[in-house]
């Protein structure tokens, strides 16, 4: 049962302006100890400065953890086994990071004896839902504090005024209105808001940070091989690597070849449409390579069933239901199908394009002797097709006569 006044709070803390103001606000409003938790999931910037900022605000217990491998191995790879994509384009880079952060936050709260957790998501977006559904799935009795839905600091100006009043350090680029909001992890970088809110206005090149412009990418293609085991990549160019290292290398290959940029308008769970500009270079390569691997290792009906359930699976993740029983049931099916997805895919990366040039597997269902137009010793009798077609035409013939 939730209590009104928490005695100890664990805050998901980035060290930026918003969460630094939230930290001070929590201390003032609830007059209790606030513990900060900063997860390093490959956002591409140093997380240690968050420790100094938290210390300056009087925090005694500070958690800063590198969760890159956990993020990729236990969240990104399982999601990719289903070739998951939301609304035809979005590879769910932000969505898949939230359950990991929330789960670890609850674990810290239990260890520290905290009775509340807090996050910096606004009341208009999806992240508030993702965080809080994940919190409650781990601990139904935890008190959740969402300052953006509670305080009166309703603008960037008020946030800066509060920060200056309480001597909270503000980066120079945070003074005034921010040009756009950025969220990053090892899977992707997202940009939205402010100058990107008009879906007719083309994004400026400076918005992109992980990929070169495809038109300015090298004139020579990059050829790579990816080896899969049970649906997950385990090696690049014949070199075995840890999950996080594989995604980092794929990001490098994709980034320099201008791969993985999308500009979309998506449907948020809370009911509004939003425009986002995403960069997912490594994930985009992985998405196409996995489909190529599955094309020779999965039975037709296995592959089609996965394609049928994928939109539902993607929607669950997008909406924050990673820890739901239905997602776990679907994951069991997906993981079962992935057991035979073993082998090597060869690709060329060129000016924003991913070109599959080869695939091979010990589990391949592809039978060259069966599909060849040349003479073969296969037991496929082409005359059998006549009866097959005639039986399938029965209902069409019947309908035509009515």
Structure explained in plain terms:
The chain has twelve helices and 14 strands. The chain is of the alpha/beta class. It has two domains: 8-67 and 93-178, Rossmann fold (3-Layer(aba) Sandwich); 183-298 and 340-360, Argininosuccinate synthetase, chain A, domain 2 (Alpha-Beta Complex), CATH 3.90.1260.10. A five-stranded parallel β-sheet has the order 3-2-1-4-5, sandwiched between helices. A hairpin with a 5-residue loop joins β11 (261-267) and β12 (273-279). The N and C termini lie far apart (65 Å).
- Given as residue ranges, the uncertain stretches (5+ residues, pLDDT < 50) are none
Helix segment count? Answer: 12
Briefly note the structural class of the backbone: alpha/beta
Please give the CATH architecture of the largest domain.
Answer: 3-Layer(aba) Sandwich
Distance between the termini: 65 Å
Question: What is the helix/strand order?
Answer: EHEHEHHEHEHEEEEEHEEHHHEEHH
Fraction of residues in β-strands: 15-25%
Q: Regarding CATH, which class of the largest domain?
A: Alpha Beta
Number of domains: 2
With strands numbered from the N-terminus, the spatial order across the biggest sheet is: 3-2-1-4-5
Computed Rg: 25 Å
